[in-house]
Amino acid sequence: MELGEKLKAIRKAKNISLQNLSDATVKTSQTRISVSFLSDIENGRSNPSIDRLKIIAKALNTSVSYFIEDSETTLFGGAIEDTEFLPVIELLRDFKDWSIEDKKELLYYLKAKKVIRDNK
């Protein structure tokens, strides 16, 4: 998935319009990234500088690495290309800060869900 496709996917998964993203960039960095430039990025007509990519990532509460890593090298592999999976990834970003009880509960749920799927 290309950078522009990733930008569009995460923006849509978070239900953020181009205008709202543009507004968020100025709130997080004092630098507004225009709607037209964001659209150009999403449609592959422009590539942002690293500095602008950092601003966009911060406005979307994600990391720059989300945009530049190959999906094969990420923890979630091909799942990153499934835009329905993006909200799950966002929820797991702070997993390291979860309590051990919460981590165990999630693991228990995922194992139970797999057993149910496997036995259908």
The separation of the N and C termini measures 32 Å
State the domain count: 1
Low-confidence region ranges: none
Top CATH class:
Mainly Alpha
Structural class: mainly alpha
The oligomeric status of these chains comes to single chain
CA-based shape: elongated
The total count of strands amounts to 0
| CATH homology superfamily name | lambda repressor-like DNA-binding domains
What does this structure look like?
It comes from Clostridium scatologenes. Pfam families: HTH_3. This is Transcriptional regulator. This protein is mainly alpha-helical and 120 residues long. It has one domain: Orthogonal Bundle (434 Repressor (Amino-terminal Domain)). Helices cover 60% and strands 0% of the residues. The chain has seven helices and no strands. Helix 2 crosses helix 4.
List its traits.
single chain, mainly alpha, 120 residues, 434 Repressor (Amino-terminal Domain), DNA-binding transcription factor activity
Quick take:
The protein is 60% helix and 0% strand.
Q: How is the secondary structure organized here?
A:
Blueprint: H1 3-13, H2 18-29, H3 35-42, H4 50-59, H5 64-68, H6 86-92, H7 100-118
